[in-house]
Amino acid sequence: VHLRCHTGEKPYSCGTCGKSFRTILTDHMRCHTGEKPYSCGTCGKSFTLRTNLTKHMRRHTGEKPYSCGTCGKSFSQRIHLTAHMTCHTSEKPYSCGTCGKSFSHWTHLTAHMTCHTSEKPYSCGTCGKSFSRWTYLTDHMRRHTGEKPYSCGTCGKSFSQRTILTAHMRCHTGEKPYSCGTCGKSFNRRSRLKAHMRIHTAEKS
Fold it and tell me: Contact at 8 Å (CB) between 130 and 123?
């Protein structure tokens, strides 16, 4: 069996889809039958392959066996480490065929493409609102559930979105990254800069 890795021989063919394999088809056939014999003892989710169950279990255990040799950051799956490495190399191999913009990971390209198609495939089961990205739907769902997983390490206040926590932290750090191009006044939130800008637009009218 091992020698087939070198020879490329794939003697086992699937009678359903015609795809060929080096080893017997037991695992592959489950994609046709829907059988999922490997179940998670923690949450009950089932998988067709034992390797997929192993990867899933790391969500519960927190195990991250794949480490970046450059910055030391660890990941639960090799594919996530591979995607991460592009932040050190600046490599962006995935390009948009419409506008030419490039991305380091194919998932970022997929998310970007929705800005050209206006497609919003992720819908909220509670209110029906649709979103172009899964992460946007996840953030939105917390409005219904009341979940606030992002906590401030300084005052303990919790928030539903990481971006809101980031904005909140500026209350403690005093950071004001949004500056008025007219008078130079700075603000800790973009919304406050926009509100301030109306002072100048009113002066011109």
Answer: yes
Tell me the residue type at 168.
Answer: H
Strand 46-47 vs strand 38-39: parallel, antiparallel, or unpaired? antiparallel
For the stretch 65-94, pLDDT in tens is: 999 998 888 988 888 888 788 778 878 888
Q: What angle do CA 164, 170, 175 make, to 5 degrees?
A: 135
3-state class (DSSP) for residue 93: coil
**Domain containing residue 78: CATH number:** 3.30.160.60
Residue 160, number of CB atoms within 10 A of its CB: 19
Give the residue carrying structure tokens 């769902």.
141
What pLDDT score does 204 carry?
Answer: 65
Q: Is 150 helix (H, G, I), strand (E, B) or coil?
A: strand
Rounded CA-CA distance 111/120 in Å is: 10
Question: Is the pTM value of this prediction over 0.70?
Answer: no
Q: What is the pLDDT of residues 1-43, one digit of tens each?
A: 667 677 777 777 888 888 887 777 778 788 888 889 889 998 8
| Residue 31: other Cβ atoms inside 10 A | 14
Residue 96 is assigned to a structural domain of this protein:
no
Beta-sheet pairing, 102-103 with 20-21: unpaired
Domain ranges, residue 167: 122-173
Torsion angles phi and psi, residue 138, rounded to 5: -60, -45
